[in-house]
């Protein structure tokens, strides 16, 4: 059976271990989307902390698909220089870096996009967001597909080790898949085949740009946990189609801001082992659909014992964490050195607060590894 600190192969990429930093918005970019020295330091700390793979925060592919003013951009050539600094910082410490690309769709924010309308498959308001988005035209859909490809090309040019499509948490790719958010009657809506078309066309355009040797992954909502929205019936179909087209790996996630905190992507109050790995049932369904594809499980991963028993069962191949690595960027090294105590993160979600104030994310809990 595979062990946590054994290498994992994802396409052409070999990771030193099976621990992944899941994409985490930092709130530290300049308002034009360029990288700052703080972001370089944060990536250095993560890479030297021993995590096998870092997935960047959600990098925007189009100005109109921005959610936060301090979100890193990949939608313009002037972003390449800063992205190159991030990749170099990670590689210098022996790490690997995959760039997550996103269009925030109906969850985009006018204040971050320079006053532009949020766009979505249909004019259906995203729960928790103030506006009804404007429904995309087919020409706009085609333009956005090309923007995903161009952003992936910039990421590759900057020296990243791969690309991850953000197909989770209610953003544009997952909106297209959702029967309640996508009410189109053209070839991008209606049947499951049509609702999958956007993600498949984005994948094909990205693959064409980056070529066969750069890994392309997706973070996929296996279930939105919202009435009449995406379930495993939808996500397993899309997973199979993407894998048939050449996708290299899947990070299994779930929930959207509209699912409510208890069923969202980042759930609070992970206290005991049975609270952990809360998308494991969904990962089982994806595993059954695409048994030979590397799967990474995210959501409440906090302890080695839980990961080891999931690995023993062969249900997934790797584990991604967000909040534990905000609190302890050196957690993988700590575990590898023999301190097996669980992640110190108490899953309070307080790290969003300073970011909301424009100060960037940080753990707000006082602790010896986080002197306040
Ligand atoms: C501060 C913060 C920012 C996040 N930003 C992103 C992001 O940019 N892209 C993404 O796919 N998920 C993002 N997430 C969700 C995480 O990647 C992850 O799916 C979720 O937090 C569950 O994992 P955890 O229990 O290890 O935190 C973010 C989560 C947090 C706490
Ligand atoms: S504030 Fe700290 S303890 Fe709370 S969720 Fe964020 S990283 Fe974890």
What count of domains describes the coordinates?
Answer: 1
CATH superfamily: Aldolase class I
Write the CATH architecture name.
Answer: Alpha-Beta Barrel
Main sheet properties: 8 strands, parallel, barrel
Please give the number of β-strands.
12
* Strand content bin: 5-15%
The rounded distance between the terminal residues' Cα atoms is: 41 Å
Structure characterization notes:
With 372 residues, the chain is of the alpha/beta class. The chain has one domain: TIM Barrel (Alpha-Beta Barrel). The protein contains 11 helices and 12 strands. The strands form 3 sheets. The chain has an 8-stranded parallel beta barrel, surrounded by 6 helices. A two-stranded antiparallel ribbon has the order 1-2. A two-stranded parallel sheet has the order 6-7. The longest helix is centred in the middle third of the chain and has 20 residues. The site of iron/sulfur cluster has 13 residues, from helix 9.
